[in-house]
Amino acid sequence: MSKKITSRAEDYSLWYNDIIQHADLAENSGVRGCMVIKPYGYAIWEKMQAELDKKFKATGHVNAYFPLFIPKSYFSKEASHVDGFAKECAVVTHYRLKNSEEGDGIVVDEDAKLEEELIVRPTSETIIWDTYRKWIQSYRDLPLLINQWANVVRWEMRTRLFLRTAEFLWQEGHTAHATKKEALEETDKIINIYSDFAQDFMAMPVIIGSKSENERFAGALETYTIEALMQDGKALQAGTSHFLGQNFAKAFDVKFATKEGTKEYVWATSWGVSTRLMGALVMTHSDDKGLVLPPKLAPYQVVIVPIYKSEEQLKEITQSVVKIKESLEAKGISVKFDDRDTHKPGWKFAEYELKGVPVRLAIGMRDLENGTIEVARRDTLEKETLQMEDIDIKVENLLEKIQNNLFNKAIDFRNENTYMANSYDEFKELIEKGGFVYAHWDGTSKTEDFIKNDTKATIRCITFDSEGKDGKCIHSGKKSNQRVLFAKAY
Amino acid sequence: MSKKITSRAEDYSLWYNDIIQHADLAENSGVRGCMVIKPYGYAIWEKMQAELDKKFKATGHVNAYFPLFIPKSYFSKEASHVDGFAKECAVVTHYRLKNSEEGDGIVVDEDAKLEEELIVRPTSETIIWDTYRKWIQSYRDLPLLINQWANVVRWEMRTRLFLRTAEFLWQEGHTAHATKKEALEETDKIINIYSDFAQDFMAMPVIIGSKSENERFAGALETYTIEALMQDGKALQAGTSHFLGQNFAKAFDVKFATKEGTKEYVWATSWGVSTRLMGALVMTHSDDKGLVLPPKLAPYQVVIVPIYKSEEQLKEITQSVVKIKESLEAKGISVKFDDRDTHKPGWKFAEYELKGVPVRLAIGMRDLENGTIEVARRDTLEKETLQMEDIDIKVENLLEKIQNNLFNKAIDFRNENTYMANSYDEFKELIEKGGFVYAHWDGTSKTEDFIKNDTKATIRCITFDSEGKDGKCIHSGKKSNQRVLFAKAY
User: Fold this and answer.
1) pLDDT tens for residues B172-199?
2) For residue B468, is pLDDT > 70?
3) Considering CB atoms only, which of B64, B106, B127 is closest to A38?
4) Do A74 and B30 make contact, defined as CB atoms within 8 angstroms?
5) Residues of B in contact with A66 (CB under 8 A)
6) Which residue, of A372, B39, B194, B435, is most buried by count of CB atoms within 10 Å of its CB?
């Protein structure tokens, strides 16, 4: 079975699917829009989870678990939220199956109809704020800093592995605060955690900013986002942090007694990243040869392939490999030694290239004689033969170099594909080319809608440092005090 | 708000609920039968997950993720499985809601009816084996050793926090093997992992054995179980490991090419433990004062409470506490320093007793002068004043002592409540008293059913070491070659 990858130039979308498939990350299941995350893909997700979880806990957050199902009526309580979320969703209406009377299989038991339908959570604000009402009485109970790792379901019509699936995995933080200021600080703190994670671990540069009203989360007063640029010139929203004001506290009647003895509504935030990050990771670094992984998220950072002709040679090589492996592992480097005799070295090389393992070591009899080892890096595809001495230090340095190189390469790509548009014609031309386009905007939904309909570009975010630079809206010509970031997006 | 705990003698069931509630482990949600796992409870579950995950990975297993939904037709493919699982379950029939035409809220959109209903997974054998068909072609693809951490839903009529809930969290392992022998070895390996985890981490003694045919998993040829004894004399099944033979391979047509070139059906196992373990943990160690946690699973193993009258005193005490905390943490001990000024020391003492924190340190001004510290252990409720010197070593030893003491106490309890019955009258009397009862059984379902209907006791397991000791069935008087373990059970 050949594992040929379509080139990006040929068909970007096929390229993406080929990588997901051939690097064994995920596949479609027998259930429409739901994916199976395969062990290799899941191992990357576990690494993401571990790092994010550490960051959340280091900033005082704790994990909890809330129900998968939400009663239909909960959604109606927050007016803007219901329009955004309670539409395309999985609805549980019955709780029993039975053998059909015709004896041809099992059917829904109509006697087991739920009095109120349950929605499989598309996001958990409503059920969580219904719970918080019981947990919050006084200022002593605040802040409440809770996160949940969970699966959610949104009945998407067009799905793509990792990027848009009916069921996906995510974390959703839901915090409650005594003051607006504190809630805003939390919203900001989290978007910075997301940004740090994306840049330091995924080696994926992101731009932080706030969403325009059109693009905000349903029920939020403010949505902060991190936006990354994919290799096809499209933007990908990689994480969002929402300031929810007192909307959910009012909808679910969550008040607290202040120190002064008055009763006030609680201030809220919510925030999340999902398995969508897996798609972002793939599209940020991979090439026409397959997946490319930043060392910090690679399930194994180093693979060692023995080159041998006989059992005896393998034995000798193995002795040497065991030592190398131990010295690398002592430095916290994860290593796979692939000594399977069912596959040839060439096959293995191709396999690990496809799977994006950052560093490949190969060692044969001549290496043993010469005290050398072949070191290949996945990012640049360069290889060289090094002296075995201090190989642990050399590999450690190389992994750091690869991590940095991937980030720098992605930054360079973004810089090369980021533009300033000063007229609407110029804007249209640049958007057609693909990439990030900064342009002045008059701040109205009307203009935003027009541009979206006309060019498919949306405002990805209003960056925090863009204010105070006056100009004229590229479309309406009206006064603008900021350039905002436009792009076509996933 | 008083946090009074009902005593076990007064009402065991209320006692259990009081502990879950007042130790902040979990609560019922607005969704029937679904619980909210609160941060403190979830932190214990996370510790369980981490340890189990480590053991699974150390034995070559990897994690993956399969869809939440299973098409109804999948269940019909394995005959005995459908009867066991596809009955009381959550059924998704629609994928959209809409605003009602009367304008009074949202209703199910009848135009968005699914062609085939989806079942929220009660367990994942069917969807996983449907996937394995694509993954397994040759003996080179075997064994496949996959685990999944997930939520599942079984529409239980009578629910109890952690012990029996409609939605619960669990891990489910699903492995595929080339030979029957290998699959049986896997089944055995896993039940021993569960047993080691229960005994070494939960400090909960368990008995390993196989289930009688009546009590087997739907679709299994053999079910191994670990059974623990709760303080009310009832047994709790804490984990199961199933040998599935070739049943699922045949149902989903999963064959592999052997080394010899023939085609054979794959051999399967599945195994799982769930948040039910949380209920087992509570009921194994807790007392009338609240939760008691084994140190290895306590979210924090040590809490330090300062005793002070002024800000200045707190400052002085804090200086000393910071050093103690650091020295404990250097030994890998998790410590909480509760310096909140919103609560008095007495309140804090009661709170941590309720929450089962293994060791409590208290330190006041006189301690600072004398170089002493008060050390209280939760398991025995003893306290003593110790010299501050080497406090890290003293606490480390104490934690180990507590872990062992809890296990030994539970073993003693089990020994005191384990009986041999030699006649049916004796059996009935002992079962009524509560506890484990070993008795001879003729091996028939008929006898088993009779005993169950008559006494509510079931065969918990057939222990592996019980064979070859001949006797006569306590009920039928027929020949028996083993005593089996009976009890009333959760």
Assistant:
1) 999 999 999 999 999 999 999 999 999 9
2) no
3) B64
4) yes
5) 29, 36
6) B194
Q: Which two tokens stand for residue B144?
A: 């496949």
Task: Tell me how close the Cα of B439 comes to any Cα of chain A, in angstroms.
Answer: 38
Is-contact B475 B451, C-beta < 8 A? yes
Residues of B in contact with A159 (CB under 8 A): none
Chain B residues in contact with A152 by the CB 8 A cut-off are none
Question: What is the reported pLDDT for B3?
Answer: 74
The amino acid at residue A483 is: R
B398-414 burial by CB neighbour count: b if 16+ within 10 A, else e?
Answer: bbeebbebbbebbeebb
Residue A30 with chain B: CB contacts under 8 Å = 71, 74, 127, 130-131
User: DSSP secondary-structure letter at B139?
Assistant: G
Please give the Cα distance from A432 to A95 (Å, whole number). 50
DSSP characters over B48-72: HHHHHHHHHHHTT-EE-B--SEEEH
- Residues counted in chain B: 490
The alpha carbon of B469 is separated from its chain's Cα centroid by a whole number of angstroms, namely: 32
Q: What angle do CA A69, A73, A75 make, to 5 degrees?
A: 75
Banded model confidence at residue A1, pLDDT cuts 50, 70, 90:
very low
Contact predicate B256/B139, CB 8 Å: yes
Question: Which of A56, A61, A69 best tests the B interface by mutation, with the highest count of B CBs <10 A?
Answer: A69
User: Vertex A309, ends A307 and A312: CA angle to 5°?
Assistant: 100
Confidence of residue B394 (pLDDT cuts 50, 70, 90): very high
Query: What is the arithmetic mean of pLDDT over B141-151?
Result: 98
Model confidence pLDDT, tens digit, residues A30-88: 999 999 999 999 999 999 999 999 999 999 999 999 999 999 999 888 777 777 776 89
Query: Could you tell me the domains of chain A?
Result: 12-69+130-285 (3.30.930.10), 302-398 (3.40.50.800), 418-487 (3.30.110.30)
pLDDT in tens, B283-302: 999 999 999 999 999 999 99
Q: Which two tokens stand for residue A415?
A: 């810089």
